[in-house]
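G., the chain you wanted modeled:
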Amino acid sequence: MLKTHGPTSHSYYSQRLRLHYVDWGNEGAPPLLMVHGGRDHCRNWDWVAEALRDEYHIIAPDLRGHGDSQWMIGGTYQLTDYVYDIAQLIHQRQLTPVTIISHSLGGMISLQYAGLYPDHVTKLVEIEGLGFSPKKVAEHYARPIDDRLGDWIDALRKISGRLPRRYPSLEEAFQRMQDENPHLSPEQARHLTIHGINQNEDGTFSWKFDNYVRIFPQTGLSQDQTHALWSRITCPVLHIRGTESWATDPDEDGRSVHFQNARVVNFEGAGHWAHHDKLDEFLGVVRDFLAA
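Predicted structure as tokens:
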């Protein structure tokens, strides 16, 4: 169970957007940044933060377009914009040197930040934050550019007419959360739902994230550029993966070779959210990694 004393809410600005983060207190302790994944929110980390708050000064942001952070104007959420937002938070709060725990999209962001500023990060845990497998990426870039850009335009046009789904009750949103990740306990699913949803004026409920975050941009860093950034990371990196997830093992698919100091831990019986699905085991591995 979570303690009754939770984090405090704060805001900062990046590229004229007002972005939200929570602070778990313990000023003066080593800073620890927790970066959530796509269509998620900062309270996704509550169980991990509760376990580590006595040892670290924990800050967990809502990415732009997520949680209680503002949505951007336009329809393309670039990875480099997320990296800038995190760089701004770390800079404004003077968090360096910082330890980072991150998930999925948050892992992709954190790895790019650590490659850009290797002296700023002491240790980095990423849960399935390497993106799609090399095979899937190669298949994507093998398609003609006109096909890829055409699909992107079609996807943007389609989502521009997609209204946020409205759930008649909190219970129905809660059920959708459980369906999305069957590994969640009812307590976890309810907590994530309560913090991840807004009530509309008509009394219905909708998820907080911007639907446009579903669209993958067609511009950005190439795979070679991404690998070059990974190779600049000097701190120890812990890759975590659930064996029941869609993510492939970075040791087996070759992505581990781009890191100077990294190891992979696979969690049996966990899906994409290993920090939820196997919380106790996750905390044990992370504590050992951070203490080493």
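The first strand starts at residue 8 and ends at 14.

Shout if anything looks off.
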